Amino acid sequence: MRTKYDTKLNRSAKRKKSKRLPGGKVRRRLFAYLGRRDPGLSDEVVAALAVAKAARPKYGPTKKRRGPSKPFAAAIGKAAAALAKNSRRVLVASPKPKTASALTTAPSGTSWQAIGPSWIPKGQTYGTNTIDVIGRVSSIAVDPSDPKHLLVGAAGGGIWESKDTGTTWTPRTDQMPSLAIGAIVFDPASPNKVYAGSGEGNFYYNLGAGVYKSTDGGTTWAVPASAPFVGVGFYDLVVDPATPSILYAATTAGFYKSTDSGVSWSLKQAGPCWDVSVHPNGGSVEILATFENGLFASTNAGNTFNSVPLPSGPSSAWARLAVDHTHSQPDIAYAFGAVGNVPYLWRRAGGTWTKITTLPKIDPNNPWTGQAWYDWYLKVTPNNPNQVYLGTIDAFRGTISGSTASWKNISTQGSHSIHPDQHCLTFSPNNPKIIYAGSDGGIFRSANSGATWKALNKGLGITEVEYLAGDPSTSKWLMAGTQDNGTIRYTGSLQWDAIAGGDGGDCGVNQLNPDVIYHSFYDVSLERSPDKGNSWTDLGLPWPPAYASLFYPPVEVFGSTVAIGAASLLVTRSGAQPWTPVALGLGTREVPTAMREIDANTILVGTNAGRMLKVSWNGASWSRVQLTSPAPRYISCVAVDPSNPQRIWVTMSQVGGGLVYRSDDAGSTWADCTGGLPKIPMNAVVVDPANFKRVWVAADVGVYQTVDLGSSWVAFSTGLPNAMAADLLFHKQDRVLVCATRSRGVWVIAVP
């Protein structure tokens, strides 16, 4: 979502044109996410550097890079299945120094508990109002036999069910192999049957674990088919209205068909397939499907396809293309696409496609087409062939007349606005004026075709939390950076406060004065609050960013010494300006990916190339020393034993070797402590300050514990959903371990 930080970016761009990755901030964030897991993408995690043209010929990853290897994705699924069967930071009240063959469960009597957010009031919009938000919704399905019965698919938070039109929600897939959901569909002939495609095509496609099926309306789920969808993301899933045993899937790997209710699947056309629209009388009449190379039609239930020429269409490859039939008059169909920032819309009637020449106006500084690969849909009102909805960064309702149209922005409209970045829209089966919109902010319902909205996000615990920071005096206060829902604050209830907008990056608390806190947006940015987030001051970091960095660069705080990691380390000794750049001597496209302040004078830095450095203050200036590298791969976290600053732990998020390392001599030598852990990315590590042999790591699935300095590990995940564990924090005074997850909020467990 755009923020005041983006406004600053746009202003600077007018002064100095810089090379920026096509597809906007979300594309950069996607490369950062993939880069920390796939060494082949490590050159693309540097947000401020241009990406080689060969890596983005079609405004997206190359076909080779659309997902991880199947063994990697399968390992994630196996780890999740094992869990189903069975901080980074230590918070201290005083200044901090900063191979088991089988995985067992955490000790009996201990279980993780969710602490939210289950509700974030006063969330951001582009309008004049605020609204309840929660996290990214990728798909919405309404029971055709009961309009009060809703199912929501979260980008990485699983499937949620409501039987009271969104008043209350219940998670239904917390122990499924993957919580990344790209599509959900009811069988219209038998609504107790529901299908879902795991792996979110827009972002978390590498987390695909197969097709899920429910036979009780979405309450319980099974996996009828994992192959061929391991590591594949879903954009769309359709049940044939004439033959419900036939299903069609639009995925990152192509168009697939099943003839046995989802048990087995065959690939009918390869290449990323974004959208499928089936004639109301079935696929043997017509299927329209969109691919990177255009619109295609089938008249034999998807067995073969023919290209559909669109008049005055682009010559370049599509960034995204959507299609939909009109249910009441299926001869009328629409196609909606984008190439770069240029949108296209066509209407078919009488077998002829006509280009619509009027589309919503585009602001060149903030084009609503700027993220077409990520947020894009087309829906035709079921009973009105002349009314369409376009989902982009904003949502538009259009009235079509011949080759022209009139448009109304229904997501940004003053005091009736909702969160931007639109992903899906669904009609109520008994009233087409009732629509449900899914976006990066959650699910919203309109009873009047988008004129006004009601948020349905209370109780929907799907916030994508990236980073944590806390108050050493109480575990009832936390701060978290979230994807597109800003920086939020926990004060002891499931309702969290929105305390800063935009994208929530890394954050930190002055442990010597916990009222003073810091948060970042993205790139090299930082704000300071003297009152725990009630007010903020920009800290005046160099703009435009003079130093390459991660999309979310690491931030460390120790007293008034504050550091943010970029190609040069930027440090202040006063908690405010001036900033001192400390050259790190990094290689091309190498940046800090993890940091730890041992004390106010000593900072450890890990990089995406596996380099470890120590930066020290000698009373007058900063100097750096390069330590031994544990491995030449992406360092995701650095932790220091509070009882022994010579003992350092690091985690790696790129597979292909050790994933957890320990040094007992301040980084001169390293021991591989991976034995017994699943071979999936490790994202965070934290040491028990009361027992230096006890350490926890957070992985792409689950949390794991060692009590023998990493010689063996056990799963420490009882009660924890199979979401990606992104960050860890240990509260020394209250003996509470805190885990931040991507799309399932924050969880805590009391540690004896």
Explain what the structure shows.
Helix content is 5%, strand content 40%. With 752 residues, it is mainly beta. The strands form 15 sheets. The chain has a 5-stranded mixed sheet, with no helix packed on it. A 4-stranded antiparallel sheet has the order 5-6-7-8, with no helix packed on it. A hairpin with a 7-residue loop joins strand 55 and strand 56. The two termini are 41 Å apart.
Properties at a glance:
5% helix; Methylamine Dehydrogenase, Chain H; 752 residues; mainly beta; 3 helices; single chain
* Main beta sheet strand tally, sense and closure: 5 strands, mixed
Quickly count the helices. 3
Q: From the 3D structure, determine the CATH topology of the largest domain.
A: Methylamine Dehydrogenase, Chain H
Based on the structure given, which CATH architecture of the largest domain is correct?
7 Propeller
Q: Helicity range of the residues?
A: under 10%
Give the percentage of residues in beta strands.
35-45%
Stretches where pLDDT falls below 50 for ≥5 residues? 9-22, 43-69, 83-89, 92-105
Q: Widest sheet: strand order? A: 1-57-58-59-2
- Can you identify the CATH class of the largest domain? Mainly Beta
Q: What is the terminal-to-terminal distance?
A: 41 Å
Mean pLDDT: 90
Rg, Å, rounded: 25 Å
Superfamily at the CATH H level of the largest domain?
YVTN repeat-like/Quinoprotein amine dehydrogenase
Count of domains: 3
Count the beta strands.
Answer: 59
Principal-axes shape call: globular
Which class of secondary structure composition applies to the elements?
mainly beta
